[in-house]
User: Fold this.
Amino acid sequence: MGQEEPRPMSIRFIRTFVSIARLGSFSAAARALGMTQSTVSLQMKALEAQMRAELFDRSGRRPTLNGPGRAFLAKAEEVVRLYDQLRDVAGAYDEHAGILKFGAVNSVVTGMLPAALRRLSRNYPRLQTQIVCGLSQDLVRKVDDGEIDAAIVSAPPSGLAPNLSWMTAARETLVVIGPPGTGAMSEEGLLRGHPFIRFNRKAWAGRFIESKLREHGYYLKEIMELDSMEAVVAMVATGMGVSVVPKRAAPDPLPAGLTVVAFQNGTISREIGIVMRMGSASAPMVEALFASLTPSGGG
Assistant:
């Protein structure tokens, strides 16, 4: 017959042994641990059997640590300390603690994001953020490549890769904007009667705006194409032309004095949402960011 495998050593027995050493007797340890003295004695007998060595000198009036017992005590105290630390680590685990690295298009960074980050910081003080700016398609590629955890972008014009997921966070209405002094003009008057300043057609938002203009039958006289919504608005404000932009979720989305006209043939909105990798370890933090993008969801 093979040799019998030793039974695992009980942390309870080791803790009892340490208590005996600290308090000086079996009876004192029993009182401190809420056990009977006979239970303490049985535990120590079992511990010695597992160790295959006597840990106490029982020749005197009460048991005291012998040489092996004193050697065992130093390691036993370390084991108890490490065991307690393990419990503390498990109890302190917070899935919303750590660094969340995400991307965001510029119109989100200067629009809804500042208020969302205030809510995120208030609700999850142990969550830190690192933000990368860029165009939607570039940020989604970074998510897919694992360079960032998520991205807040315009809705993709076509489907995402199978390993990516989409959560719609907001809808922003598209409006026609004109320079000061054009307030009496209609949507058609603004778009057909003035040079057009276009947002980057390589950006998903720019492609979406272009497709909606074509659906409405607008083929416009363009004078410039810019990479930034803020730059487009600034050019319109100086009288260079007109444009179509999303009315962003911000306290002051457009400068005072600009003409702002809604489309007459129904509201046109672009979707803003979060792209993340499916099964990502950072999913709880990304979901916390998503909730914070909406005041009702972020507290």
